[in-house]
Amino acid sequence: MSLSGHRFSPAALASLRSAFRGELIDADHPVYDRARVVWNARIDRRPALIARCTGVADVLAAVRFAREQGALVAVRGGGHDVAGSAVCEGGLVIDLSPMKGVRVDPHRRTVRAQAGLTWAELDRETQAFGLATTGGQCSTTGVAGVTLGGGIGWLMRQHGLTIDNLISADVVTADGRLLVASARENEELFWGLRGGGGNFGIVTELELRLHPVSQVFAGMLVHPGERLGDALRFYQEFAEREPDPLASSLIYFELPPMPEIPERLRGAPGVAIVVCYNGPPDEAERALAPLRAFGPPAAEIVGPMPYLALQGMFNGSPAGDYGFSQCIRSQYVARLGDAAIEALVAQVQARVSPLCLFEIAHLGGAVARVGEDETAFARRSAPFFSMFQSTWTDPADAERNIRWTQAAWQAMRPFSLGVTHPSFIDGDEPEARVSETFGDAKMKRLAALKRAYDPENFFRMNKNIKP
After folding, report:
1. What CA–CA distance (Å, rounded) separates 313 from 178?
2. Looking at the DSSP assignment, which residues form a beta bridge with residue 357?
3. Which single residue of 39, 42, 356, 420 could bond 330 by disulfide (Cβ 3.0 to 4.6 Å)?
4. Residue 34: CA atoms inside 13 Å, Cβ hemisphere, count?
5. CA angle 373, 376, 381 (to 5 degrees)
6. pLDDT at residue 5, rounded to an integer
7. Is 390 helix (H, G, I), strand (E, B) or coil?
8. If DSSP codes are grouped into helix, strand and coil, which group holds residue 30?
9. Strand 49-52 with 92-95, pairing
10. Exposed, middle or buried by CB within 10 Å (0-12, 13-18, 19+), for 195?
């Protein structure tokens, strides 16, 4: 079998088939083109083989096959990475998406989750018991990928990042071992997995701590787009006084055609302050009162809702759905002054498509209370995370959208902290972005860990840390 320059021997393929319980998909398979699709439609790669794993034995067999054949390997969980690292050209995709096992222990408030789960699938199981853990803000993202990158979400200020709730992980290493990493076993590997991504092995199962969450007080308060500068000034002051049960972000985007939004603003640029309060309604009302007083908002869509509804609020939007090409540039920022806000307003006003957006999310709370050296995740003290995202469908629009995203990010660089969340590093950014994000001290420790568990850089389709 040959595709894109890589040739697998018939004997090796026969051996793999005999040891593999899942589905092996090559270019002649009827679902091949569907199986190689990832969230970012800008990524169009053709692997030689996709190995859809049903369990750890399949993962071990696929790793052994790839090593023997010298094949490039990509690991797919949710397939939502903007850089498209879940699929490779001409190599082997180890696809974990069929691995959907999940078991909630409501008494210990823990869950064991296999690496093929999305947040929508995990949340559905944990919410049956009124429990949840910090997950992605878009529920179509994969549990494993979000966790290994750090894991920001609506519960982070109250309960920390997803990695702060990670109890243990089952890991298949490059040399074909299955290890458990936890605070008591393979402790250095456990440290590196919490923020270091998929550099050290394939995580097949995670054990996560859960918290009481059922109905939250959530939604968004909407302002016309021309109010962006004032909204940013207000939002930053408001965020400094946010109680931990409240998480929020400010998004500049095209307002959806919702009946609660005035007709004149539907489809127009707008500012939405999105909120989630996990606590008693009377406390939520007090915490959100300043948001209602500012402006006042042109529309308010805030109230009690199931946590599952909040998690799925942005599902189906172009920025979060499959089938759209995406480009992202992101950075941590401190408080933005007048010069920064003026520059930001100019950039969003120059956007080249109604689908371009800007978001700034408040961190702090429990995120910042974990020591900087306790996990590989870097820059916990950063107060805000910001992102420019462009989205398009016509390939002819790619260049202008990418150019806007890059230019907007560059314009804001002087006002940023110079680093970003590793999960949001796009595929066309320089390798140095990874090292500058982690910093010298952590990069040395991560590189040593890479040498210990993957000295040949077998797992390199990721935010790569070289051995």
Report:
1. 37
2. 389
3. 420
4. 4
5. 60
6. 45
7. strand
8. coil
9. parallel
10. buried
Measure the CA–CA gap between 172 and 55, rounded to whole angstroms. 11
The encoded tokens of residue 196 equal 């270091």
Q: How far is CA 315 from the centre of its chain?
A: 14
pTM of the model: 0.95
- 62: helix, strand or coil: helix
Give φ, ψ of 98 to 5 degrees. Answer: -75, -10
Coil vs helix vs strand at 293: helix
Q: State the pLDDT at residue 137.
A: 81
Burial class of residue 91 (count of CB atoms within 10 Å of its CB; 0-12, 13-18, 19+): buried
Q: Which region holds residue 79: left if phi is over 0, alpha if psi is between -120 and 50, else beta?
A: left
Nearest to 248 by CA among 283, 277, 274, 217: 274
Query: How many residues belong to the chain?
Result: 467
Which helix (H) or strand (E) element contains residue 65?
Answer: helix 56-69
**DSSP assignment string, 149-166:** H----TTHHHH--GGGGE
Consecutive H or E run containing 306: strand 299-306
Q: Do the beta carbons of residue 75 and residue 50 sit within 8 Å?
A: no
Pick the closest to residue 449 from 150, 194, 162 (CA basis). 194
Low-confidence ranges of the chain (pLDDT < 50): 1-5
Is residue 413 within 8 A of residue 330, CB to CB? The reply is no
Query: What's residue 364's pLDDT?
Result: 96
Closest CA to 226 of 50, 81, 338, 345: 345
Instruction: Count other Cβ atoms within 10 Å, centred on residue 230.
Output: 14
3-state secondary structure of 215: strand
Strand partners, 104: 111
Q: What are phi and psi of 179, to 5 degrees?
A: -120, 155
pLDDT of residue 2: 39
**Residue holding tokens 């540039």?**
329
Q: What is the per-residue pLDDT for 316?
A: 79
Q: 202-209 and 269-277: which strand pairing?
A: unpaired
**Which pLDDT does position 1 carry in this prediction?**
40
Amino acid identity at 58: D
Q: Give the single-character DSSP code of 181.
A: E
Q: DSSP per residue over 185-215, as a string?
A: SSHHHHHHHHHHGGGS-EEEEEEEE-EE-SE
In angstroms, how far is the first alpha carbon of the chain from the final one? 32
Nearest to 453 by CA among 40, 445, 461, 213: 445
CA distance 247 to 378: 20
- 446: tokens are 């991560």
